[in-house]
Design goal:
alpha/beta, single chain, globular, seven-stranded parallel β-sheet, Epimerase_deHydtase
């Protein structure tokens, strides 16, 4: 019998793509979330329903996590559940602690008590302070003498999770890998980061307008590559992991939102996109921890090779998949 992998946040954006890739290759997936998949996630996972068991639960509730692992005999965990929007916890540190930190500890504790294989934890580039040097390696400091994580309580919660993971490995031998995604995009994405409205409005024939942001740079990373890296991190032999932290990114020079708009216009004839110059106040804070990310350790230790390293290729895939999704919705109505 194939193994079972518990995917927390499995009905969400990244989690649903991880679950789909696991099921596609033959693993049994325990989809753990507060709500069943809906919308794009439901469409994405539908073809693999026979390999997916949905469990309603909350990662911040220890009995929910332990019960799901025990009941379904999960052998490993991919932990993608979190409050993923820094603004949502900007003034609510206890919420960041309860969901992001305690939820992650519940996964690590389940692995300790039940002797699971590896726990793959999704962190964030938001753990980084202002960039000191590029390319940014996994050894770049996250706590400096004059500043901490650039994304506030969200980044602080992710730093705490990474630190606890090392503690669990040192004290109990729990095996783990941490992934720090950058600007993840693709079907089902929730946070706009310019690309969602650009692509989906263009396909649907709507205009897109942004007052500012043309100069905002990001390492836009396709969700299929992020999910593929999660599987590689799950599978890699322990002796191959000289590092435990990896960037889920393309590693290429950053692309601005203005450049992104040009890519979308080139792929969707008639795309009506206007984006003003400069940065918003929030963008000015975020851009400080955006830099070229070093993915060499993921390449060398995990065999990571992004399929959609070129933004043009990734946006084309997003456009095509969004069109297929919209056609499927229309056929059902």
């Amino acid at each position: 019998m194939s193994r079972a992998v518990l995917v927390t946040g499995g009905a969400g954006f990244i989690g649903s793509h991880v679950a789909a890739q696991l099921a596609r290759r033959g693993d049994r997936v325990v989809l753990f979330d507060q709500r069943p998949p809906a919308g794009a996630a439901e469409w994405l996972l539908g073809p693999h329903a026979d390999r997916i068991a949905f469990v309603r639960g909350d990662v911040s509730e220890w009995p929910d996590v332990l019960g799901a692992v025990r009941e379904h005999a999960a052998g490993a965990i991919v932990h993608a559940a979190a409050i993923g929007d820094p603004a949502a916890v900007q003034h609510r540190p206890l919420l960041a602690l309860r969901v992001n930190v305690e939820g992650s500890l519940h996964c690590l504790e389940a692995a300790r008590l039940l002797g699971l294989g590896r726990v793959v934890l999704f962190s964030s580039i938001g753990v980084l302070p202002g960039i000191r040097e590029e390319p940014v390696t996994a050894s770049h400091p996250v706590i400096c003498g004059d500043e901490g994580p650039g994304s506030g309580f969200y980044g602080a919660s992710k730093v705490a999770v990474e630190a606890f993971a090392y503690g669990y490995r040192q004290a109990f031998g729990v095996d783990f890998a941490v992934l720090r995604p950058s600007a993840v995009y693709g079907l089902g994405m929730q946070h706009p980061i310019f690309i969602k409205p650009m692509v989906e409005d263009a396909v649907d024939g709507r205009p897109t307008r942004f007052a500012t942001g043309r100069d905002f740079p990001r390492d836009y990373t396709h969700v299929e590559d992020v999910a593929a890296l999660a599987l590689l991190a799950l599978d890699a032999p322990a002796d191959a992991l000289r590092d435990r932290v990896f960037y889920a990114a393309t590693g290429r020079p950053l692309r601005t939102a203005g450049e992104l708009a040009e890519v979308v216009r080139g792929l969707v004839p008639g795309a009506d996109i206007e984006i003003g110059p400069g940065l918003s106040d929030a963008d000015r804070l975020e851009v400080r921890y955006r830099g070229v990310l070093d993915i060499s350790n993921a390449r060398e230790q995990l065999g990571y090779a992004p399929r959609f390293g070129r933004l043009e290729d990734g946006v084309r895939q997003y456009v095509d998949e969004y069109r297929r999704y919209r056609e499927a919705l229309a056929a059902r109505s």
